[in-house]
Amino acid sequence: MPDKRAITILMADDDADDRLMTREAFEASHLKNELRFVENGVELLDYLYRRGPYSDPASSPRPSIILLDLNMPKKDGREVLEEIKSDPDLRNIRIIVLTTSKAEEDIYRTYNLGAASYITKPVTFESLVDVVKTLGKYWLEIVELDEGRSGN
Predict the structure, then answer these.
(1) Exposure pattern of 92-107 as b/e (b: 16+ CB <10 Å)?
(2) Which of 65, 71, 73, 113 is exposed most, by the fewest CB atoms within 10 A?
(3) Which domain covers residue 134, as residue numbers?
(4) CA distance 6 to 66
């Protein structure tokens, strides 16, 4: 049985500070998962479809979980979520929306599009560490992820 803790997590967020804080929160939470980053929706789709700099599966492993910001340049998280969930090869990837938006419309829409969870970004680093610990406990220890599909 594969080590559930060894899954790849891909974060799509255009804010460099948020990416850095999330990496530090993973380290502070002692999560050993491989955490990778893209900066916008176009890069996220390039990564998933193995285009351009993400063409090598060894350096761009398929993520089991995507942490998705909604408000990104080029292609926002709502559009990307819809595209991923409409693709039979990608739709089993768990997408956790991690965003500043508290709009009810965003919450309802992302769940309707297939998001697994919707989390408003915490304001403090300590709160982010708590969120990451909870995510780790739930998604990496409790939930059985569908790792049987190789996808691309």
Answers:
(1) bbbbbbbbebeeeebb
(2) 73
(3) 4-140
(4) 14
Residue with tokens 């970004």: 121
Q: Is residue 151 part of a domain?
A: no
- Rounded Cα distance, 9 and 109, in Å: 23
Burial of residue 70 (number of CB atoms within 10 Å: 0-12, 13-18, 19+): buried
Total count of domains within the chain:
1
Distance of alpha carbon 96 from alpha carbon 131, whole angstroms: 12
3-state secondary structure (DSSP) of residue 17: helix
Structure tokens at 124: 């403090």
Edge-to-edge strand list for the sheet holding 117-120: 34-38, 8-12, 65-68, 94-99, 117-120
Helix axes 77-85, 41-48, angle to 10 degrees: 20
pLDDT tens for residues 16-57?
A: 888 888 888 778 777 777 889 999 999 999 999 999 999 998
Q: Which tokens go with 12?
A: 């799509």
Q: Which two tokens stand for residue 49?
A: 């479809």
Beta bridge partners of 68: 12, 97
- Helix, strand or coil, per DSSP, at residue 68: strand
Residue type at position 11: M
